[in-house]
Amino acid sequence: MKGHVAGALRWRDLPGALWHWLRHGARSAEDFRAAFARSLGLDPAQAGEVRLFGTGRAALHAFTASLDLPPGSEVLLPGYTCVVVPNVFMHLGLAVRYVDIARDDFNPTPDAISNAIGEATRLVVVPHNFGLVTEGLDALRAKHPDVVFIEDAAHAWGSTDAIGREVGTLGHAAFFSFEYSKPLTTGIGGALVIHDPASRERFAARMPALHAPTTSTVLKQLLTLCWHRLTMSLPRPALQALIALLRAPSRMLGVVAKTPDSEVAGDTQPDYRAGLHPLSAAIGLMQASRFDEIHALRRMQAQDYDALLANLPGWEWPVRAPGAVLLRYPLLLPDAATRDAAIAALEDEGIVGGTWFDDVVHPRGSRRFGYTEGECLNGERAARTVLNLPLGRHARLSPSQRAAVRAIAERHGGKAR
């Protein structure tokens, strides 16, 4: 299957990471911090700008808590995001308001963000959805000096803005996710990058004490990571048979690491004090050390899709800057029925057609903390019609699959001119 998970992970990374951890122990985390800093164009000697966490949402929670925002403060969020982001502010007791994305993009424009900032706004989460960069942060910071801008870089490891600066170094701070489906994966994990010196100093004085995950938690994450990597190696019939065989035992034994349904619903609060295990960090190190190769492959694959889907007016995709490194290749189809038909056809070809994000506050059915239906019409349209094509090491399409993608696009909503 050609899908969206473990996109940078090789099988040999796992024994390599285990050997590194056995030799270096806790230092594996420091080695990963330095390698990740280098991948962002930061001086590895100043890797203190990078803090590792058990999840990306924990990084966002810790940074926001360090701001000591006064009562009545408001946070602006994009009207196209994952539920774990607004849930952070719900758990911190902060009000949120959503800014709609542009009709031809998956992020809000800088003008939309600026116009939405009000007297109570103290923090803005600036997205780079799918690796598409939200430009204009310099101007936003200059125009609104009392507002803190934090980048949601969960999708955007490796992307650069119009003048070549790395995502994660544009706002006051940025958070990254290392979950299974992200550009770099440690199973579950995340990082906080604090670019602004004053914010970094304030955070250092308030940095929460993190605890190491339990052995059982790390084992569950590794088993799930291995499973996701395996799904990218098997043909569809073998994968379907294996899923049918293992579904019941895995659920019974609780060996799958995923976000609990109760957290998605907002009924429970995650452990925001969980740290990243050194073995997980060593897995990240194996990938971060190859960042040039990983980013170059994704850029090349996106360009290949560009050529493959050219002159198909029924399928829309946003214009991206040359420096973008896409997590997935996002498209907007004419309507939900066309999107669903295309996904089914892709599945028959062994290609996973993703539906990130399937709601303004993904996933569909979440509490949508602070959101009112109709508030972000472009975000709602995107959620109904978005289709993602896979990118990454395990998403290389065969010639027959490439031909099938073009044929499916022509058959479901687009006609060659």
Structural class: alpha/beta
Q: How much strand content do the residues show?
A: 5-15%
Tell me about the largest β-sheet: 7 strands, mixed
Arrangement of strands in the largest sheet: 1-8-7-6-5-2-4
Which spans of ≥5 residues are poorly predicted at pLDDT below 50? none
Helix content: 40-55%
N- to C-terminal distance: 31 Å
Spell out the helices and strands N to C: HHEHEEHEHEHEEEHHHHHHEHEHEH
**Radius of gyration of CA atoms, rounded to a whole number:** 21 Å
Please provide the count of β strands: 11
Describe this structure in words.
- This protein is of the alpha/beta class.
- Helices cover 41% and strands 12% of the residues.
- β5, α6 and β6 form a beta-alpha-beta unit.
- α1 (13-24) crosses α11.
- The chain is globular.
